[in-house]
Amino acid sequence: ARxxxxxxxxxxxxxxxxxxxxxxxxxxxxxxxxxxxLLATAVAELCSNGANTLRELGELAGINIGVGTRIDYLxxxxxxxxxxxxxxxxLATDDEMKMNILMHPHDLAWDFEKLDKMVExxxxxxxxxxxxxxxxxxxxxxxxxxWDLTQEEWREWATxxxxxxxxxxxxxxxxxxxxxxxxxxxxxxxxxxxxxxxTFFKEKLGDDYVQFLFEEAHKCDPDATLYLNDFxxxxxxxxxxxxxxxVEQWVAEGVPIHGIGMQAHVSYFHDTxxxxxxxxxxxxxxxxxxxxxxxxxxxxxENATDFYEHQAEIYYTLVKLALRFPNxxxxxxxxxxxxxxxxxxxxxxxxxxxxxxxxxTDN
Length: 363
Description:
Blueprint (H helix, E strand, L loop, with lengths): L28 H11 L14 H8 L2 E6 L1 H6 L1 H10 L2 E4 L5 H4 L10 H12 L3 E9 L14 H18 L4 E8 L2 E2 L1 H4 L5 E2 L3 H6 L3 H12 L4 E6 L7 H15 L6 E4 L2 E2 L5 H14 L3 E9 L9 H16 L6 E7 L28
Parallel strand pairs: 1-2, 1-11, 2-3, 3-4, 4-7, 7-8, 8-10, 9-10, 10-11
Antiparallel strand pairs: 5-6
């Protein structure tokens, strides 16, 4: 028996609708450097045919150039919607797919309003959609924690939750971050070693809950590409090594993990090329797909000098490196439309505001 009421049918796939989009010149100095990285590929000679946006060049290079944002921003600020339509060929959900948004806080009833609107926006503008994220320990409705279920019942609920979402958008949302931030980082999380994070889901579903969630997601939509998304998993450190070893073991055991997502919130300006070239190579050699899923480059007050030059170099370098691994690198998603719509703005951890996104406040 389902835990939830049946959902209305999903709208038509965005891939069944082809829309024209603006070919206006690219805005912003940082976007120009990302453009330059794409121009460095074999598509350079095609630019004379009129390709002058990130969207067009990404499609010519065979890679998704996406942006993570919220439907509220797209509805309230028409200029931001136009920016998405012009410069990107993929839309990543910011909060719309998180559990605390999809389940109403008062009674845990399904609420697909925001996610449906984002799907409609993507459909109308021929954008692919990246689903972020099905299970995240920081996005749990408070009332869900009050449920008193056995582990078997929790697993039944989790399967029902996954299938309700994935079946609703089957063929529309084609790749998902099934889990987000399930591994700890020794320094960041103040723990002695890398390992699986102790979370509500681990407690309720069991120590093998990550494997279980991927297996259930694959059953619900066998055609979807399933990613494990995490942070600080691009550095040559114990966390990266632990994730690689663990995921490779799980895959060898038959767990359908298809790719690794690197959030790539970059706040340093040294050894960038060495760090990411090593990470991209190691993930590529593992046989897994890989993606930059929340890419931005921000500064703290102490490294604000010549920031734009350093930031442009970071954007350029990571795109250049990603294009060296065409068999495994499928998506580059920047996090936030412009500096006014970034998670860094008004964040007390970043008193200088960071200015992390591809476009400045004037787009």
